[in-house]
Specification:
With 258 residues, the chain is mostly helical. The protein is built from 13 helices and 2 strands. It has a two-stranded antiparallel sheet. The model has no long low-confidence stretch (mean pLDDT 89).
Length: 258
Amino acid sequence: LRGNDAIRLDYLRGRLNMFEGDFNRARITYTRANRAARTGELAEKTRYYLSLNDFYNQEFDFAALQLRALQRQPTSYYANNALRLKTWIQDGVNEELATDEIKAYSRAHFFYNSGLYEEALEELKVFSGSSDQPLKSDALLIIADILRKNDPVLGYHILNQVIKEGLRTTSQERLLWEKARLADALYHVESKPESSIIGQELLDAFSIAFSIDVEALRNPDLAEVTDIYESILMDYPQGFYASAARTRIRYLISQISS
């Protein structure tokens, strides 16, 4: 193999190694691919995944170093991903020491991207604490996505409770949107999915960690669903989800009228 084919092969080997949790071997193949690519899309791609691999390996200093090259290329396809990864590291490393939260989030993110949802939720229980945990909003987005497929009632009530407690974050609009999606889905179904791959014991433990009264759980009604969409429009009238929120409100109104 020559040229780009050899680089892509090393990149793919790196992805497989990282997926299998062999972060040291992944680092070797990603590094080789990045050095060979030098510039261009392949160089940017391998640099980003090299930094993500170091993040998963909890080598946060190395991950931050890898991101500096991507920061100098703001037009890169991976610029937004790199910025998000950089923010996680900045939020989770305090006075050059990695916090327990970033270590748990790193493991949870790897498990989540590997489809190991029970393992991810086990790690994310640490974010049931105070609202001043810097990575809490990012953790909640993963929790919401996992529970949407497995226990949307619990997912909705966790987001509802955390938002009511006053969690303020740059991801506030996204959290409201995720809460709205869960509420909307629950309004149109009668119960949680029967094919949940998350064990009930873990779901119960998760409920306890977030102080959710499972006996009081119920599906939101139409008024609650529309109120959430309206809160998005009130707080973020020109936001990313404003148009979609308006569309859903119109649809829900049309259901009432028909």
